[in-house]
Amino acid sequence: MAMISPHVSEYMTSGPFAVGPREPLSNARRLMEKYELRHLPVWSEGKLVGIVSDRDLNLVQMLAHASPDDVITIEDAMTPDPYAPSPDTLLVDVVRVMVERKIGSAVVVDAGQIVGIFTASDAMRALLDAIAESRAPSRPSSMRTTSGGRPRPRASR
Predict the structure, then answer these.
(1) pLDDT in tens, 36-71
(2) Contact at 8 Å (CB) between 7 and 157?
(3) Are 93 and 83 in contact (CB under 8 A)?
(4) First and final CA of the chain: distance in angstroms?
(5) Which residues have a Cβ under 8 Å from the Cβ of 76 and sit 6 or more positions away?
(6) What is the DSSP string of 89-155?
(7) Burial 114-137 (b: 16+ CB within 10 A, else e)
(8) How far is Cα 87 from Cα 8, in angstroms, rounded to an integer?
(9) Which of 39, 81, 121, 139 could form a disulfide with 105 if both were Cys (CB 3.0 to 4.6 A apart)?
(10) CA–CA dist 115, 141 (Å, integer)
């Protein structure tokens, strides 16, 4: 039985927070700690300009010899021009690009707006669903499992 490849929108986290490039690093750190995030899109003048990770923040602060976060801006730590697939991009294509580029996340953009973020953790969740689906041939293909093992309907396309 051939599996239908889902779209990235089925596994992304919708409505992610975003920060501006000229904001102090402390703003990004506060958001990441408060909401347990590891990646934040960077948005400026109506467009996606970068992405910053918790590892980026730690590295830049270390290199700055523990300068206060308020002196260093997000632009100093961000990776410019992040990978930004559309919500209808096949999940397999998004994961392939992430593996080839050795990146941990993709910012999902639709009509010029950030609509979600897809991370390596989301890819692991998709892998778990694929394994569970392949082991349970009697389960209807219109159902997926959540991390708790309860079935949930697939998102409509």
Answers:
(1) 999 999 999 999 999 999 999 988 878 876 566 557
(2) yes
(3) no
(4) 21
(5) 25, 60
(6) SBHHHHHHHHHHHT-SEEEEEETTEEEEEEEHHHHHHHHHHHHHHHH-TTS-TTEEE-TTS-EEEPP
(7) bbbbbbbebbebbeebeeebeeee
(8) 6
(9) 39
(10) 26
Token output for 155: 């998102």
Distance between CA atoms of residues 106 and 20, nearest Å: 18
Tokens of 11: 């596994």
Q: How far apart are the C-alpha atoms of 85 and 38, rounded to whole Å?
A: 19
Classify domain 8-139 at the CATH topology level. Answer: CBS-domain (3.10.580)
Q: What is the pLDDT of residues 92-136, one digit of tens each?
A: 999 999 999 999 999 999 999 999 999 999 999 999 998 998 887
